[in-house]
Design brief:
By secondary structure, the chain is of the alpha+beta class. About 40% of the residues lie in helices and about 15% in strands. The radius of gyration is 21 Å and the shape is elongated.
Length: about 210
């Protein structure tokens, strides 16, 4: 059994200034103000359209992120409708095989230290589940059958592509202090990366610890 921390990787190369320029070119069609485009007008334009609520314009740009998290968190992620997903499949992935190290991988619970009794109870449960899964496969069960014993803590990998407007909506829900702690464990540092690399678009969103 392997226990790991969640993580993410921004798949796209983010050139925030170029993104803003493309958004400006698209948005100014609405107002037929293309002649107002200058070398430094994009930031002001995008800031104004976000302030005015004209966020459909930022849908012209997208970002793809690879997220490694537990299955429970992935279930929250895929509730976002305007997005594309490709996720590790427990139906086809056989964790009994050598390519997976003949073991299950779980995401460490964010809210329990390893010395707590709660963590020990969780760890023992994961060991039992791994044993049951391997025994099912060994008895001839297919992965799509054996997966019925797999828990929310199972590690999964998911590729997520959203346009910028949907990413804003994602962070408003998933980085908020009321979100699930393990969801925020991914959402907050990802938001900080977006804020660092892309001017204006994510600046006014929650970033509290």
């Amino acid at each position: 059994m392997k226990i790991i921390e969640p993580e993410f990787e921004i798949v796209d190369f983010l050139d925030g200034n170029e993104m803003l320029k493309r958004i400006e070119r698209a948005g100014r069609v609405c107002y037929k103000s293309e002649l107002s485009i200058t070398n430094d007008s994009a930031i002001r334009f995008v800031k104004n359209i976000i302030r005015s609520g004209h966020e459909s314009v930022i849908e012209h740009e997208k970002i793809t992120v690879k997220i490694i998290c537990d299955r429970g968190v992935s279930h929250e992620i895929v509730r976002h409708r305007i997005a594309s997903y490709s996720q590790e499949s427990t139906r086809y992935c056989n964790y009994y095989a050598d390519k997976f190290g003949n073991e299950l991988t779980f995401i460490k619970p964010y809210f329990w230290n390893e010395d707590l009794e709660k963590y020990k109870i969780w760890e023992n449960a994961m060991l039992y589940i791994e044993k049951a899964y391997m025994e099912l496969i060994g008895a001839g069960a297919k992965p799509q059958e054996a997966r019925s014993v797999l828990p929310n803590s199972l590690k999964t990998e998911i590729i997520v592509t959203m346009n910028l407007r949907e990413w804003r909506h994602f962070f408003k829900l998933r980085a908020d202090k009321t979100a699930h702690p393990q969801m925020r464990q991914i959402a907050l540092p990802l938001l900080k990366e977006f804020q660092k690399d892309i001017p204006v678009v994510f600046d006014n969103l929650i970033d509290e610890e």
